[in-house]
Predict the 3D structure of the following.
Amino acid sequence: MSNKILIHICCAPCLIAPYDNLIRQNFQVMGFWYNPNIHPYTEYKRRLHEVKRFSENHNFNIIYKDNYKLEEFLRNVVFRENNRCQYCYYDRLLNTAIYARRGKFDYFTTTLLYSKFQNHKQIIDIAQSLANKYGVKFYYQDFRKLWKEGIELSKSEKMYRQQYCGCIYSERDRYLGKKSVGRNA
């Protein structure tokens, strides 16, 4: 029985604990980097660099869809800012499901499930819909249970640990000290 899984990677600190966990469960894990919404571009490049460093240090294969599409993200969420995460989840999971199908993976999942700040129900609903459409099973695990482990592992590897989800709105909310309105834990 094959256990090939493609994991969407939002950033290296959110990857490290789920990656270790999936390996312990005997999955054949491959990564998928696709995050066109991260702002500013320097932040996008910094996160991408950290993922590449993780890949090299762990001999971990990653597919890179290195597309910075800030304008497209903004066009799709303007006047719907309070629901922006839904679009963001959909876009990243859609691309993950497509690549999982092309690569004949048994499953796909996402490191978004590691964050205590993401809406798991919305992620699961979107992913299940895409799993049905593309014929690749969505693997759900509540990676939030690995939160402390992930923090310790990322610190031990001296990873860059960002302070916001990634989009321009979450960056704004970080500096204004507000809870992001687009996300629900």
